[in-house]
Amino acid sequence: xxxxxxxxxxxxxxxxxxxxxxxxxxxxxxxxxxxxxxxxxxxxxxxxxxxxxxxxxxxxxxxxxxxxxxxxxxxxxxxxxxxxxxxxxxxxxxxxxxxxxxxxxxxxxxxxxxxxxxxxxxxxxxxxxxxxxxxxxxxxxxxxxxxxxxxxxxxxxxxxxxxxxxxxxxxxxxxxxxxxxxxxxxxxxxxxxxxxxxxxxxxxxxxxxxxxxxxxxxxxxxxxxxxxxxxxxxxxxxxxx
Length: 241
What we know:
Oligomer: single chain
Helix content: under 10%
Largest sheet: 10 strands, antiparallel
Radius of gyration: 18 Å
Distance between the termini: 32 Å
Number of helices: 1
């Protein structure tokens, strides 16, 4: 291994703790908190979210965020997406900030969002499972995310399904501010073209298939969330390919 110069030692960020999300093979037969598909764990009073089109959104995955993940440790993350609307997210900005209630703002040509990302504090399982995806267990395994050079001044992390760590930024870093002016922070990443296996008989997803669904057209997805958590859905899904 070559020697690291003083400038390199100063400029290169340190490795960051992270958790790798691994999807199991055996179908689930009952509710578990960490899953692909399955029974959503929702807070009291939180209804199953719907798309602007009126369809119940598909639960793609959920898990308890490990306690040592900054800002969000101890909360429960759920990612929902419409089966009938499959597109990339497009941020609407006003004065350099996301518009108020950006988690349900219009997504032209759509009158609203076709996804919902929730952070829940004390959730319980619903009495019915997600009907379209094969329910699978999801295991979070700790690892160290080492920064890799991207361009002259930026560094990226591992291109994996993970929570915490360093985003892998396929097209360069993106940052967003809440309507209140506070910065959103990186929380979780879903790799490009990650498949989510459907149950037999599920309707075909636009730009997808009857066997597998994808998130946001199969783009790499980086979930940014508001640390103060002004609303359970105060998150933004950055899409890159």
